[in-house]
Amino acid sequence: MSNRSPSPEVIELMGEVAELMLAELDALVAEMSAAEVELSPVLGVDASAMTDTSASNHAGARQLLNLFTRRDTNWTVRTASFELPHEMLDVAHTVARRGLDLDVIFQSYRYAQNVAWRHFMAHATRIAPPGPVLMELLQVSSERLFDYIDYALTQVIAATQREREDMLGGALARRAEAIRLVLDDAPIHSDRASERLGYQLGRRHTALVLWSGPGSEAQGALESAATTLARAMGARPPLTLSVGASALWAWLGSDAEPDLAALREPADKIAPGIRVAVGSTLRGIAGFRRSHDQALTVQRLLAENPDGPSVGLYRDLEVTALVTENISRAAEFVQSTLGALAEDNPGAERLRETLRVFLEEADNAPRTATRLHTHRNTVLQRVARAAELLGFAPGDRRLALGLALELGHHLGHRVLTRTD
């Protein structure tokens, strides 16, 4: 890098470009994350990994662009005093706990860097005149961007190595390895795996995926929530595996068929912000894997609707999962079936939820009123109003209507009609 300080004009232009990129930060981060997942699909294998990846990109891009907006002529990564956002270091936890190769971090950062640099150049060439000023702007900006990425890589890789050293030789590392062998359908005998896990794989299993917002330092709360849910279901203490700074996989073992509905009851006893995806109860080592896959599917659905329920059961969402393989077709189906009732506003939502529960309760208004904590007459009034908006009696198209209501309930704005 040249020892000569950049010109004030270039520093001002750099700040202007950074402000333009901050204004489109969400779109930029989405493109960065998509590029990383295309390179390393393991980063998008489930909602928690994808959330950690996006949170890291968002925090890093925001920090660097904010540094550019300071318009400090003498600022460089080498001379500045700053710490990386904790979201970027949380990735170290995710990579180490999932047994990913360090090259995943290195390559992902370079792909994200290329996306960010393309956006920067596009803005720079629009606002800076061709010639020496533009050339200096691109040179100075690229040097600072590359220096920042190099610094971030050094810090994140060091943190990952420390995390791995903490795990090496410990019970956590042996448990994580055994679980991965089972989930990968590796040639390991059920009895041998059970011995390594301290958990009997021959019984019935109910898989959970628990998670919270990125960077919430929630591991203790997630472990506590898993234990609370195990007690509610009458199961043994859960087998758990931390898979990120804010995500936990768990399995509840039982000899008899548990009452999964009981998992909803203690939802108010776990820490706020924690969400839980629940697989079916299935037997044996194959059931251990299958239930986990189902829980990951439920997590994907719940994570795409932040306003949705805190606890989701695969048995309630299986049809939704099948339908949402094509989300645009699902949205078309919901909106054409529900008509005005598909509007994404509080009034329509109240009517949809009342009608959904009413259909679940076989058109029984008193039971619906009990579930919704309201009066029977209120239920009947809402159902009548919903029928007016639909333009047909709910019983006339019960199957299609029930499915559309379930999709709207679980997927929210992704399939509803925007009214803003």
UniProtKB/TrEMBL annotation:
It holds the Pfam family RsbRD_N. Residues 27-175 form the RsbT co-antagonist protein RsbRD N-terminal domain. Coiled coil: none annotated. Residues 192-300 form the CdaR GGDEF-like domain. Transmembrane segments: none annotated. Residues 351-406 form the PucR C-terminal helix-turn-helix domain. Belongs to the CdaR family. This is PucR family transcriptional regulator. It comes from Mycobacteroides chelonae.
